[in-house]
């Protein structure tokens, strides 16, 4: 028997064993008390990631989003977005769009992360990855302290995109380059009372 055959036999045996004994997955996550001000921490972390952040009341949403879009000419607006900001529907050619506006399913304070589950107002996954500017709207009541709280709110059967700041990589000589794998600019609009 060759070394290759021995390895494959061991793998097959382990797989047969795994099929017979499904071990429970431990769910004893380390919990940390929620910070006193989750919204303040979220803001701090979002800005740390080099994203821009604006705050507004619900009635100011459309004007705040339009201001965040600046001079963007072609703006993609997915179905179900909660404000009229002008723009083209989701079916548009993504490469021809300068910006996209979406909502978020949840915001995570400790990591400054936005999670999209691609429900109403969020569109398909590619929307948040191709245009150069992503304006993402999240309500204060959608912000949770940490990742375990966010995961508990999300449907594991839905696609998810987790966004922590504008697209960035340090793959080449450890120099940070933004916009290689997605939007060069992330603008978060935080809607509160």
Automatic annotation (TrEMBL):
Q: Which Pfam families match?
A: LUD_dom
Q: Where is the LUD domain?
A: 94-191
This protein is called what? LUD domain-containing protein
What organism, scientifically named, is this protein from? Amycolatopsis rhabdoformis
